[in-house]
Each structure stands twice: as structure tokens, then as C-alpha cells.
Amino acid sequence: MKVSIDPKYCVGHGMCHLNAPDVFGLDDDGHGVALEGEIPSALRESARLGSESCPQQAISIEE
């Protein structure tokens, strides 16, 4: 699984980071950033939760 955040849609609500801090962080402007590369299996549910919590639907998950 890989996750990505589309910067065109992310407005910095921070819900991804709030709900899945091991997978999502925030940049200096408060916009979401995702772990790069393959998400470890132990964090996959967390990644889904963070993605689902995005009100802008800016997060994509590739299985």
C-alpha cells in the first residue's frame, strides 16, 4: 500500500495527521504530507483512517 496527498486539494485541515500521526505529517504551511514508499502492514488501517478523515478527499491509497 502507498498513500499520496494531492496538493491541489489539501487545504491543511490536518485531520489525516490527527487521526493517523504515524502515517501523515504536516509541512511548514500546515498541509498534509504522507510517508513515502510502502506503508508497513501494521500501519495500513491507520492510513485508511487518515485518508477517510480528509474532508477534501485529497488522499489517494494505492493497494
Secondary structure elements and pairings:
Layout (H helix, E strand, L loop, with lengths): L1 E4 L9 H5 L4 E3 L5 E3 L9 H9 L6 E4 L1
Antiparallel strand pairs: 1-4, 2-3
Task: Name the features.
63 residues; alpha+beta; Alpha-Beta Plaits; two-stranded antiparallel ribbon; globular; metal-binding; iron-sulfur cluster binding
Q: What is the correct CATH architecture? A: 2-Layer Sandwich
In this structure, how is the largest beta sheet organized?
Answer: 2 strands, antiparallel
Broad shape? globular
Strand order of the largest sheet: 1-4
At the first level of CATH, the class is Alpha Beta
What is the name of the CATH topology?
Alpha-Beta Plaits
The CA-CA distance between the termini, in Å, is: 4 Å
Number of DSSP E strands: 4
Q: Low-confidence spans: pLDDT under 50, at least 5 residues?
A: none
> How many separate domains?
1
Tell me the strand percentage band. 15-25%
- Tally of separate helices: 2
One letter per element, helices H and strands E, the order comes to: EHEEHE
Keywords: Electron transport, Iron, Iron-sulfur, Metal-binding, Transport
Pfam family, one: Fer4_15
InterPro entries: Fe-S_cluster_ET
GO molecular function: iron-sulfur cluster binding; metal ion binding
